[in-house]
Fold this sequence. Notes:
There is one protein chain. By secondary structure, the protein is an alpha+beta fold. The protein is built from six helices and 14 strands. It has one domain: CNF1/YfiH-like putative cysteine hydrolases (4-Layer Sandwich). Helix content is 23%, strand content 24%. It has a six-stranded mixed sheet with strand order 4-5-8-7-9-13. The chain has a five-stranded mixed sheet with strand order 1-2-14-6-3, with helices on one face. The radius of gyration is 17 Å and the shape is globular.
Amino acid sequence: MSIDVVASPLLDGVxxxxxxxxxxxxxxxxxxLNVGLGSADDPLAVAENRRRALAAVAPDAAxxxxxxxxxxxxxxxxxxWPDDARPPADALVTDRPGLALGILTADCAPVLFADVDxxxxxxxxxxxxxxxxxxxxxxITAMEGLGARRDRISAVVGPCIAQASYxxxxxxxxxxxxxxxxxxxxxxxxxxxxxxxxxxxxxxxRLSAAGVGRVEVLGLxxxxxxxxxxxxxxxxxAGEPDYxxxxxxxxxx
Length: 253
């Protein structure tokens, strides 16, 4: 099975792709293109999957990922580092050709950024904690530090858990409403005592409010599309002890 690479016209000026679980060598619970170094998968399979993922998007580039911690820290790599030396962060920006920035997800929102005129790209991991904390705002600021202009930036929110699949409790909703009463619009009623949260809609709103020139939401639900994407929540609901991670990549030409 070939690797599934989802691209966006908004990022046509750079090499990029939101990858799923198809086309890898992993087996069992994480069958497919599992790139998660933190999974219980065979490390050799994960290494091969990461090689295949990079080859599908930017074969001549060096892959750079981080140790994701659901925060807002942004790093600016000049060169690639070893996988066992990944810094704790949830976003990367660069103006260096030859580097492919990678973000791993399994329901959280991957966001890819580019100011093609400035030659500056970024990638962010936006789970709910990072999203409300401002990881996308921090990424935009870091891109500006390299010469990008936010009104020229295009940002695409990739495959993540959709509102219909993201059930939360009242305490979760209260965190967002306490920050801004307008965040109420990202919640709809679910079963008694629960609501449904629109993570991709919230991330897109943060991007637009920050002044990003063009924003797109791909609208691919990682929980619902089980043959295409890994999902932490799906694995948890099924009582499975492990789950895979997919990767989203961006690199300058």
